[in-house]
């Protein structure tokens, strides 16, 4: 299926009317093709549905730049094919929207689709195809000329049950996607010779099992949830640390994206196309017992005792239903390793006897749970929502000897629970629905005693970090520690080391310094005492990103050592939000004694007193490596640079600037750019009115920048809401804690 090099060469020979002998070698034919195409002023070659990389040199196609006007276009389901063929530009082709899907469906199904009794079923069938042209065309054509309602109703049921009763659907749609599945190979990761010898006998993971596991979820799923479950099931292979396993999980996800079996969704979520999910469910139940699954996710179930489950079922999913209670007696499932019950908001109690039917479980994701002490093989327990203090007794966790990954609300972890179990990867303690629960000091001490812990995501009371030794944090590979209560939305990102502090006055004695030395990102919201923790002879070499949100300060310069000691020598990203007393970023840098020598991204957001970004004449020099500047609704901003003449000609400044965004009203009428410094500019964003009012020393200079200017499309009336703007650093948007 799809093009091979031999097929492509044969079709090119046919289209060019070349004479070749049947016994002629591929090299000889390639030479004839090359000589023939070289005679053309230009040519366009389209290779459709390429499934394996084709060496164009071997089949005789000249490089597209020779002649310059020639082009080669390939279409493929696999991004890896494009990479192997060294394409210059990759363009993702998106699925059709609902209107386009319906038009294509009617075109193939004919007028029968518009018959009054049939149209509701035809509409639903078109929606089940989820914008996939191949599925719409094949299924629409298969229903053409069928006026009986029963046939349409049966076709819809078949699609919803992921059962390809229609032969055309199976042969032309399912088999195409199955080919992509069959082509999956677990990706290799380059290792040093020492690493290769260390890992020579270890399994590297099973990407096909990872793909089939995705079918247990509705259309969208959290990448972290997937990776954690894959790890617990053993699909990621054998690894010495959680970090290695997590990295392999990310590699698996990216590989599935590259062959279009998964799609990028919002934040840290991925999406599986409905038709691909149907194929995955079909495949999972076509492999016999190895991947036998029951998937009843998001279909409105209120009870499960009538669901037919075989004794050999490996995985069960009842995600996102309306289940209120589980039965006392359930079919014996001695081989089931995964049970997913999350997002059943009405589920109030699970009978003690329920888990007796699942002795082999490795993964459980649910809420409001009891009777789990029989799960001796459990590796991952996810209790995402609910107050379980009344239903879980002291010592409950000690009855789970195999547990390695625990994810739960912080309100679930009062200090009386003994945490010294078999954790070697992750503890995740996030607040419940009210968003105000915290871990008590005693519990934090117990967490610090978990010597195998590598990742920690937790919310603390400020008293939890006072008078404590934080050197144990150096063994953490990733963490996000929230101190205090924040109104911001919590968005988890498991790939970095972040501290977020909100509404606290904990800096007076430098309590935060011990934790900051291990952090790479810092978020401060309505906090006091920043200067004392930063300037007090502390050097935070690892801190690369700071977001200051609504922190009131009087920006007086640091008195001594301002030019000799930089407390944040590696700071690359700075975001100042609602800092109302701030008149310039230079004031902020002098206030903390920062030199900003490595600053690359600067964001100022609703700072109403801000009149300029940098005062060039001040003791602190302009950041030499600044690449992106974003100003949002800083109404009094008059200049980017003040006192430019103090350091010479403007061509020595902002020479690395690539993007400039000025959104909302401002007073800037001239940009401190020259022909020399504008060479790196890729994008300038602002209003059309602002751009037209700018003053220029040279009209030709403006003309050179016109094609790099992009106007905002939204209405900038001056009204805005917090948290509606996203900057180039997705980890530090305003009013968001990532």
From TrEMBL:
Residues 221-280 form the Disease resistance protein winged helix domain. One of its GO terms (molecular function) is ATP binding. Gene3D superfamilies: Helical domain of apoptotic protease-activating factors, P-loop containing nucleotide triphosphate hydrolases, Ribonuclease Inhibitor. The keyword Lyase does not apply. Residues 4-110 form the NB-ARC domain. The keyword Repressor does not apply. Keywords: ATP-binding, Leucine-rich repeat, Nucleotide-binding, Plant defense. Pfam families: NB-ARC, WHD_DRP. One of its GO terms (biological process) is defense response. Belongs to the disease resistance NB-LRR family. This is NB-ARC domain-containing protein. It comes from Solanum verrucosum. The lineage of its organism: Eukaryota, Viridiplantae, Streptophyta, Embryophyta, Tracheophyta.
């Amino acid at each position: 299926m799809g093009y091979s090099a031999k097929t492509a060469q044969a079709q090119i020979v046919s289209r060019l009317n070349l004479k070749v002998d049947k016994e002629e070698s591929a090299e000889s034919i390639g030479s004839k093709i090359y000589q023939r195409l070289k005679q053309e002023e230009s040519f366009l070659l389209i290779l459709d549905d390429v499934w394996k990389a084709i060496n164009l040199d071997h089949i005789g196609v000249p490089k597209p730049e020779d002649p310059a006007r020639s082009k080669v276009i390939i279409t493929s389901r696999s991004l890896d094919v494009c990479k192997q063929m060294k394409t210059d530009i990759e363009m993702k082709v998106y699925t059709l929207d609902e209107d386009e899907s319906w038009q294509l469906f009617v075109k193939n199904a004919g007028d029968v689709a518009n018959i009054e009794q049939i149209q509701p079923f035809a509409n639903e069938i078109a929606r089940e195809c989820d914008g996939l042209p191949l599925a719409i065309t094949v299924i629409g054509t298969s229903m053409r000329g069928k006026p009986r309602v029963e046939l349409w109703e049966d076709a819809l049921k078949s699609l919803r049950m992921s059962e390809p009763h229609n032969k055309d659907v199976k042969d032309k749609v399912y088999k195409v996607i199955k080919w992509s599945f069959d082509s999956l190979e677990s990706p290799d990761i380059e290792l040093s010779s020492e690493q290769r010898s260390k890992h020579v006998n270890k399994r590297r993971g099973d990407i096909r099992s990872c793909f089939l596991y995705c079918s247990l979820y509705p259309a969208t799923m959290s990448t972290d949830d997937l990776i954690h479950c894959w790890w617990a099931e053993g699909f990621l292979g054998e690894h010495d640390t959680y970090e290695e396993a997590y990295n392999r999980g990310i590699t698996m996800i990216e590989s599935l994206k590259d062959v279009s079996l998964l799609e990028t969704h919002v934040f840290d979520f991925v999406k599986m196309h409905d038709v691909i999910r149907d194929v995955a469910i079909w495949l999972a139940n076509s492999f016999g017992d190895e991947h036998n699954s029951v998937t009843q996710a998001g279909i409105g179930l209120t009870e499960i005792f009538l669901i037919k489950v075989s004794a050999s079922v490996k995985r069960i999913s009842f995600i996102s239903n309306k289940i209120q209670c589980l039965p006392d007696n359930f079919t014996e499932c001695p081989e089931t390793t995964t049970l997913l019950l999350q997002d059943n908001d009405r589920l109030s109690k699970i009978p003690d006897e329920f888990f007796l039917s699942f002795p082999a479980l490795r993964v459980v994701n649910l809420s409001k749970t009891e009777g789990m002490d029989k799960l001796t093989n459990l590796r991952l327990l996810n209790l995402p929502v609910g107050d379980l203090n009344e239903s879980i007794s002291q010592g409950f966790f000690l009855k789970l000897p195999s547990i390695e990954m625990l994810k739960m609300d912080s309100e679930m972890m009062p200090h009386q629970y003994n945490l010294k179990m078999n954790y070697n990867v992750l503890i995740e303690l996030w607040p419940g629905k009210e968003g105000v629960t915290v871990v008590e000091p005693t519990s934090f001490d117990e967490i610090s005693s978990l010597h195998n812990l590598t990742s920690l995501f937790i919310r603390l009371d400020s008293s939890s970090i006072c008078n404590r030794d934080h050197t144990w944090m150096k063994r953490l590979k990733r963490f996000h520690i929230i101190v205090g209560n924040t109104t911001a939305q919590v968005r988890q990102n498991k790939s970095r080391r972040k501290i977020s502090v909100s509404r606290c006055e904990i800096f007076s004695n430098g309590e935060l310094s011990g934790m900051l030395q291990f952090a790479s990102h810092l978020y401060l919201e309505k906090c006091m005492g920043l200067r004392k923790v930063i300037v007090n002879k502390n050097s935070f070499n690892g801190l690369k990103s700071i977001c200051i949100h609504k922190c009131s300060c009087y920006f007086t310069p640091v008195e001594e050592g301002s030019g000799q000691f930089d407390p944040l020598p590696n700071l690359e990203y700075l975001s100042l939000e609602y800092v109302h007393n701030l008149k310039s970023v230079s004031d902020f840098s002098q206030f903390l004694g920062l030199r900003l020598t490595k600053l690359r991204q600067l964001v100022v957001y609703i700072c109403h007193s801000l009149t300029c970004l940098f005062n060039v004449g001040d003791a602190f020099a302009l950041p030499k490596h600044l690449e992106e500047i974003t100003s949002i609704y800083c109404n009094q901003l008059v200049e980017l640079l003040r006192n430019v003449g103090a350091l010479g000609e403007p061509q020595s400044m902002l020479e690395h600037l690539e993007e400039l965004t000025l959104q909302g009203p401002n007073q800037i009428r001239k940009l401190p750019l020259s022909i020399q410094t504008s060479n790196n500019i890729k994008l300038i964003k602002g209003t059309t009115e602002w751009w037209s009012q700018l003053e220029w020393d040279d009209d030709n200079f403006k003309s050179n920048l016109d094609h790099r200017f992009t106007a905002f499309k939204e209405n900038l009336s001056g009204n805005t809401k917090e948290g509606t703007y996203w900057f180039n650093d997705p980890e530090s948007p305003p009013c968001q804690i990532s």
